[in-house]
């Protein structure tokens, strides 16, 4: 298929450089570039990576982490069982 395409100067220069580098015709470089670009656009965006940010801290005053029974009693009350 033949068509007329207006190409920005910077894109044209890059296509010309790729033509020289690969020893291909302008048509081959344009078609390959379009295919790769369209394939990339068809790929879903990667999900943002979930990052856990650690926070330094200490237990509240009066909280004893050495005894789970004492901690449960503090948090839940004397009838925690």
- What is the 3D shape? rod-shaped
Helix content bin: 40-55%
- The tally of strands reads 0
Oligomer: single chain
Question: Spans with pLDDT under 50 lasting ≥5 residues?
Answer: none
End-to-end separation in angstroms reads 79 Å
Largest sheet: none
Summarize the helix and strand pattern as letters.
Answer: HHH
Count the DSSP helices.
Answer: 3
Structural class given helices, strands, pairing? mainly alpha
CA-based gyration radius:
32 Å
Mean pLDDT: 89
Question: What share of the residues does DSSP label as strand, in percent?
Answer: under 5%
Structure description:
The chain is mostly helical and 81 residues long. It has a domain at 9-42. It contains three helices and no strands. The chain has helices at 9-22, 26-42, 68-76. α1 (9-22) crosses α2 (26-42). The radius of gyration is 32 Å and the shape is rod-shaped.
């Amino acid at each position: 298929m033949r068509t007329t395409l207006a190409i920005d100067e910077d894109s044209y220069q890059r296509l010309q450089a790729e033509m020289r580098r690969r020893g291909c015709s302008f048509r081959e470089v344009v078609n390959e570039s379009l295919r790769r670009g369209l394939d990339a656009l068809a790929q879903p965006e990667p999900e943002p990576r979930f990052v856990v940010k650690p926070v330094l801290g200490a237990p509240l005053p009066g909280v004893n982490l050495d005894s789970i029974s004492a901690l449960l009693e503090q948090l839940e009350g004397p009838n925690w069982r």
